[in-house]
Amino acid sequence: MHYGLLAALSAGIMFFVTRPARRKLDEFRERKEHLEDARARVRKLTKQINDLKKEVPETKKCPSCVNETNKDAVFCEFCGVNIKEMEETEKEKEI
Ligand SMILES: [Zn+2]
Q1: Are 18 and 41 members of one domain?
Q2: Which residue ranges of the chain lie beneath pLDDT 50?
């Protein structure tokens, strides 16, 4: 038997023997890519959430209706009470 033929034959056998392993490796690489894509998406969404949180104005509790209203609001958005006035009255009571 020719050595060349033997080499070709064993190369052919090796090709088929290792095929499932190569397929698994391809699958693994594909999954890894999917995972990296998903991670990138999560990072992007987390950044968007943080940006949105920054955009939300600070709030304070209305002393009258206890709803969250804008921190700098003079009048409560919900019950219309004069928050500034109420706060000042509260301070006076403390004194
Ligand atoms: Zn209110």
Answers
A1: yes
A2: none
90: CA distance to ligand 1 center in Å? 15
Check residue 55 and give its pLDDT.
81
How many Å apart are CA 61 and CA 58, to the nearest integer?
A: 11
Whether the model clears a pTM of 0.85, i.e. scores above it, the answer is no
Q: Which domain holds residue 71?
A: 59-94
The pLDDT of residue 10: 92
Contact predicate 59/76, CB 8 Å: no
Q: Are 43 and 72 found together in one domain?
A: no
Distance (Å) from CA 95 to ligand 1 centroid:
24
Same domain, yes or no: 51 and 66: no
Distance 87 CA to ligand 1 centre (A): 12
| Statement to judge: residues 28 and 43 lie in one domain | yes
Pairwise CA distance, residues 60 & 66, whole Å: 9
